[in-house]
Amino acid sequence: MPSTVYWGSPRQTQLDHAETLPAKLDLIIDRLHLRDRVKGHRVAIKLHLGANIGYSVVHPVFVRRVVQAIKDGGGDPFVTDLPYSVVDAHARGYTAETLGCPIYPSNGIDEKWVKVVPYQFRNLTEFHLGGPIAEASFLVDFAHVKGHPDAAWGGVIKNLALGCMDGQTRGAMHDVVHYEPYFHKDKCRGEAHRVAIRESCPYGAIVNDRQDPDGLHLHTYKCNQCMRCQAVAEGAFEIRPGNFAGFAQVVNLAAKVVLDSFTPGNAIFINLATNITPVCDCFGFTGMNILPDAGIFGSDDIVAVEQATLDALGRSPVAEENLPAMMEIVTREGHPFQQIHGPYKDPYAMLAHAESLGMGCRQYELVDVLPLKTPDFKQVNYIKTT
Ligand code: SF4
Fold first, then answer.
1. Cα(313) to centroid of ligand 1, in Å?
2. How far is CA 82 from CA 163, 189, 283, in A?
3. Protein residue closest via CA to atom 8 of ligand 1
4. Which helix (DSSP H) or strand (DSSP E) does residue 252 occupy?
5. For the CA of 224, the nearest atom of ligand 1
6. What spacing in Å lies between the alpha carbon of 248 and ligand 1's midpoint?
7. Geometric angle at alpha carbon 55, from 50 and 61, rounded to 5°
8. Which residues of the chain have pLDDT under 50?
9. Pair (145, 262) in one structural domain
10. Ligand 1 test: best mutation among 198, 224, 329, 344, most atoms within 8 Å of CB?
11. 19 lies in a domain?
């Protein structure tokens, strides 16, 4: 049975504030019955508060509406994100005064307030879930949708996966891409060959391995799988789909750990798909939009809301003229996020894996909370007066 996803279009019929996205967020909150569900709950509102001078994060105008709805319903809300984003969040407009509730680091001031959850996946043996998240009883997962250099994109799943874990877990999660060996010394013809492989990448994605002076290290986040290195490597260095897929999978696993800490039904998920930039808000800047705004999506189902968001964004071609000059489209196949970050970073495969974990359903029914009306333009007869 499909899950319901409520959608607020970025388009308006009239020049009326009631038809704009913050007002449509109110309608989504109503449809999700948020007020009726939070009485007596300590509600974690997980945001990405961004970094440095990035300004494409979720605007406080939106957050404040969620906070007020929770208070109206008798809940006790707090906004949370990683300590490094919280410490200067005021520089991007986030304060207790603008949001209407406190802002707490998601794993304590020094990233030591965590709950250890044993889990075996590649190099990773445990997740360190942030204490304030683990101790909350209701979750509002509110994400700004954008591209991401390792996962291809980020929405509500990635918002939970990395932003609710401590630094040790985040490091281990990023390292899963190196678990399957990709540099084969037995096939490398010596130092000149090793250097030639390293220098063949125009993006600097291949570097010396800091752990091994004779090795090579792949920055998967910089790699768009253009395959130039493969012509030089002759089997000594592989660009393998499994390495790239590993990151999306560990993101799903981490998000599931977060969700499992809440009673089923005690979470809602909201994607704000505006200002779609090529990379994550943790880069600390805002680039040009590479896809048109797709609006705001809300659901009780984390997978369905991601699928609906991806589908909506997938209907438009990449605004290639808005990409940084150093970003190159190497394929015109697949989702626009895949075209930007490479064919092995498949956002739909990520959702298929999330569904296989039982996190939600990719089938959805999209409900427009305020459909556009077709204006009744009367025929205008131009009358010449002179
Ligand atoms: S596939 Fe292309 S981007 Fe990736 S490491 Fe090789 S040369 Fe660099």
1. 26
2. 6, 44, 14
3. 201
4. helix 241-260
5. 3
6. 19
7. 90
8. none
9. yes
10. 224
11. yes
**Residue 64: predicted pLDDT:** 98
Residue nearest to atom 2 of ligand 1 (CA): 226
Q: How many residues does the chain have?
A: 386
- Separation of CA 90 from chain center: 22
Instruction: Supply the pLDDT for residue 386.
Output: 66
Please name the residue whose Cα sits nearest to atom 7 of ligand 1: 201
Return the half-sphere exposure (C-beta side, CA atoms, 13 A cut-off) of residue 80: 31
Upper half-sphere CA count for residue 294 (Cβ side, 13 Å): 29
Number of domains the chain contains? 2
- What's the gap in Å between 181 CA and the centre of ligand 1? 16
Q: Does the residue 385 lie in any domain?
A: no
Please give the distance, rounded to the nearest whole angstrom, from the Cα atom of residue 213 to the centre of ligand 1.
Answer: 20
Residue 374 belongs to some domain of the structure? no
CATH number, domain at 86? 3.40.50
Residue 376's pLDDT is what?
A: 82
Does one domain contain both 196 and 124? no
Does residue 42 contact residue 83 with C-beta atoms inside 8 Å?
no
Q: How far apart are CA 377 and CA 279, in angstroms?
A: 42
Is 147 a domain residue? yes
Ligand 1 centroid to Cα of residue 176, in Å, is: 18
pLDDT at 363: 98
Report pLDDT digits (tens) over 228-283. 999 999 999 999 999 999 999 999 999 999 999 999 999 999 999 999 999 999 99
pLDDT at position 62: 98
The pLDDT tens digits for 127-141 are 999 999 999 999 999
Ligand 1 atom showing the smallest separation from residue 237 Cα: 6
* Ligand 1 mean position, distance from CA 163 (Å): 28
346 and 289 within one domain:
yes
pLDDT at 384: 73
Pocket of ligand 1 (CB under 6 A): 200-201, 203, 205-206, 223-229, 239
Ligand 1 centre distance from Cα of residue 228 (Å): 6
